[in-house]
């Protein structure tokens, strides 16, 4: 009976064409409140004084922590296969900091 229950709980995930194309981001701004984390993904273009948020993901704290762990596991697997990911000088990306601890109103 447990196997039937597990089968019933499987979710079929679909991706529509627009989402499947993806969105390139080279900056992430992370803010949080007591109830949620907000991840804003931005594409910054060289020489442009403005950049717009391309995608925003709002997650519960527990889901955000699960995402962090999944990213850590996948980075470890990637580096095992392809070698260490080299990080650029932090001064090359002065805006790469987490945002304020509280979300703006």
Q: Summarize the helix and strand pattern as letters.
A: HHEEEH
Report the average pLDDT across residues.
85
Strand order across the largest sheet:
1-2-3
The secondary structure category is alpha+beta
Shape category: extended
Strand content: 15-25%
Secondary structure tally: strands? 3
Structurally, the number of domains stands at 1
Low-confidence stretches: 98-105
- Distance from first to last alpha carbon: 49 Å
Percent helix: 25-40%
What's the arrangement of secondary structure elements?
Elements: H1 2-8, H2 17-20, E1 27-32, E2 37-42, E3 53-59, H3 61-82
Antiparallel strand pairs: 1-2, 2-3
Write up what this structure looks like.
This protein starts with a helix and ends in a 23-residue tail after the last helix. A 3-stranded antiparallel β-sheet has the order 1-2-3. It contains 3 helices and 3 strands. It has helices at residues 2-8, 17-20, 61-82; strands at residues 27-32, 37-42, 53-59. It has one domain (17-92). The radius of gyration is 18 Å and the shape is extended. With 105 residues, it is of the alpha+beta class.
What's this, in brief?
The chain is built from three helices and three strands. It is α+β, with helices and mostly antiparallel strands and 105 residues long. It has one domain.
Features:
alpha+beta, 31% helix, 105 residues, three-stranded antiparallel sheet, extended, 3 helices
């Amino acid at each position: 009976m447990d196997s039937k229950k597990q089968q019933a709980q499987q979710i079929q995930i679909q991706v529509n064409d627009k989402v499947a194309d993806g969105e390139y981001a080279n900056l992430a701004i992370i803010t949080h409140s007591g109830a949620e984390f907000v991840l804003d993904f931005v594409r910054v273009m060289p020489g442009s004084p403005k950049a717009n948020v391309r995608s925003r993901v709002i997650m519960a704290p527990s889901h955000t922590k699960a995402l962090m762990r999944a990213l850590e596991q996948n980075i470890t697997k990637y580096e095992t296969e392809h070698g260490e990911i080299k990080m650029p000088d932090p001064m090359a990306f002065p805006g790469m900091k987490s945002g304020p601890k509280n979300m703006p109103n």
